[in-house]
Design a protein that fits this description.
The chain has eight helices and 20 strands. By secondary structure, the protein is α/β, with parallel strands linked by helices. A ten-stranded mixed beta sheet has the order 11-12-13-15-14-16-17-18-19-20.
Amino acid sequence: MFSTKRIKFLVIVMGLVSVGVSASEPEQAELLKYSVAGRADKDGAIYNPGEEMIFTIRAMYAGRPTSEYYLKWIRTADDGKKVEGFAKVFAEKALEITTSLDVPGFVRIQAFLADEKGKPLFRKQPNLNYKTMISFDGGAGVEIEKLKGVPEPQDFDAFWKSQKAKLAKVPLKAGKVRISVDHSDPALETYVVTITCAGAKPATGYLKIPTGAKEKSLPINVYFHGYGIDKPRPLQYAGGIDMISFTVNAHGMELEREQAYYDALKNGKLKNYAFDNQENIDAEMTYFNGMVLRLMRALEYVKSLPQWDGKNLTVQGGSQGGFQALIAAGVDSDISRCSVFIPWCCDLGGITLGRLRGWRPDYHAALDYYDPINHAKRINCPVEIQWAGLGDYTCPPSGIAVLYNNIRTPKSITFVQGATHCHVPPEAQRFILKIENTMNK
């Protein structure tokens, strides 16, 4: 115990076989049957400063109990403190870990199944070339409504006015080629679209539009991709026969090319894109500049389609796609709805305020022009944050809380206990915040 003010973790390990870190193939097959889940004593997992928080964590193996095992745990938080522990765990005996947080922010608790020396156990996922730990990653927040980011640039609006002027100098011209998509709905026509844009690359994407749609008859859904340079898939967001859907490529890549083209970009020009510190010291040199110019041009294009009803325009995406969708809603007042999940790069300057860092570029003041927390203040439509993981430290919950606080329109957010960037536990606790009646100031 390291504090009288505490988070309690109750750990019950069930059915775990005794294996070391370097497990054999049969033992790896056994490890694949394990999972670790956690629950908080408050469904909301939001507490007052210094208040005790109580979690229950269980490791499970096909519902069968076991006699003993080992667990390694780590406590970090937005107060900068780190504590670690290790203990033998028994099915009939609880392991308690206690802590608290005295400042607005989040506590993070990681608990890993380990060998007798405290080394976490890894298992290889089928058909994947990497291993993962058998773990719980979650936490709790304190006075999250008080979280704020660093001050935004004084010329934030002037900067984006200049970027729109830059884009306006390039006439909007689009070429589209209809393609055949296996298993696609025959009532939908699918096109590869290439649109002129400011900068070195055009805007590109997949357009799906119902066959024979009448003028001014349909809503539009615009989708944005997560981080990566994988070969685009036209069926990733199929839309429906009652809407126009446009999937925007983040990089302005050529679509429908051979795999070697995308592999060359992944290992060459686009390797570790957006993480170049030299680029990121200048707001117009950063990789995000071209990405946002392309999304703005993509929005101009879909709004020019005669079938659009002129009213309903939704932007959507997760992770980097959420980052793009939020910026889109901030720079384009015609957006009628924004729906995102685990949005990336929120509160980039938060690390200068002592908050736990996520997986994102190093902080430079020039990146404040792209931080969704600043665009959030300028969004005019309802915003739904479908979910944010309390164990997601690619997109930390503190940054998404700042984002939520800055939105001035009807909004909702769902925090999920034990959810990481790539995994949402089944039957996880969910905590929903919602404000339906607000005025954009």
